[in-house]
Amino acid sequence: LTWCVAFLVNYRFFLRPGERPEWLYDYWSAGLFSFQTLGDFLWWPRVLGAAMGDPVGFVGIGWVAAVPVVLSIAIWLLGSVRELIERRRFEPRRLVFGIVFLPILVTLGAATIGAYPFAKRLILFLVPFLAIAFAHGLAGLAGRWPKIATAVLVSFLLVPSFWFLLWLPRGGLPLAADTRALFAQLETRHGGEPILLDHQTAYAWRHYRPTIDGEIVKLKAAWNHRDRSKRIAEALATVDQDEAWVVIARTDVVGRSGEPNPTSPLGRLFYRDLTAGDLTFATTYRAWIGRDVEWTPIDELRGGLSGWRIIDEWNEYGVWLAKVHRASSETT
Question: Do the Cβ atoms of 65 and 56 come closer than 8 Å?
Fold first, then answer.
């Protein structure tokens, strides 16, 4: 009941009155069912497996973790139907599990009719229900399988998730250390030029308070690189000087394969990070997985620099710093 009230209030007063940006619907389209071919019916297992990967946490093996969930819900549905037919009532135990399973089914149904995406952070509220369904299904399998087989199954599911959590700080967003490094680079390179900050970078700027003198120009909020590029162009049009800095403390990650790429024994790398007091395990990450990480699309951000030329640039782990010069002021 609490979840229903929260959802209805959020939808009525915040979501429904809002504008409908097409790029946002395109971004979440994978979480909405769209029938074109028979293969589209695989959307249900695919989207449930994706949900078990993100946000539940079984990254890379979500489809395996989804099996106990499907079995648990299927057994509950079949048992409930049989009980209604035979006894015309529900046992209290089935009602309790109905409270757990119904939010999953209702949200999945809403995604099927295109009303609400079943994907990632938009279904964070389902994580407890999916976790309980997973545990219930796994317990049902444990009652039928030998203990050794169950232990192997649990290890197969949980060990890779634990492995991923070791890399989670570097898994998709820049760390505080990266943001501080960004501002440190700006402090050494800055010569009094105006500084353009996007709305997310402005929060970090207020927190770290870098000792940099210069006019601060805040970009209007944007949630994708195309719009952010437009905001950069708009802000540069207000700059009077011929040079300025564009500072972005968070870009997006693409092309991460997640496959280990060892260049040194894992234990030695862990020991090096621990003795250095670096609990982000940056050395370990860079040596094993860092090669497969690419941040971008910086080229898309550069699209906002029309009429300006980059003369200095620094880009690493999702943070971007660029000094630009007005092209029209150059002499030929």
Answer: yes
- Name beta bridge partners: 296: 252
Q: What is the rounded distance in angstroms from the CA atom of residue 319 to the CA atom of residue 9?
A: 36
Return the residue matching tokens 């090096």. Answer: 272
Q: Which of 111, 99, 118 is nearest to 52 (CA)?
A: 118
Question: Could you tell me which of 310, 302, 313, 315 has the C-alpha nearest to residue 327?
Answer: 310
pTM: 0.54
CA separation for the pair 212, 215 (Å, rounded): 9
How open is the CA angle 71-259-158, to the nearest 5 degrees?
A: 35
Can you tell me the distance from the alpha carbon of 130 to that of 140, in angstroms, rounded to the nearest whole number? 15
pLDDT (tens digit, 9 = 90+) per residue, 108-153? 999 999 888 999 888 988 999 999 998 888 777 766 666 656 676 6
Q: What is the pLDDT of residues 289-311, one digit of tens each?
A: 444 444 445 676 777 788 899 99
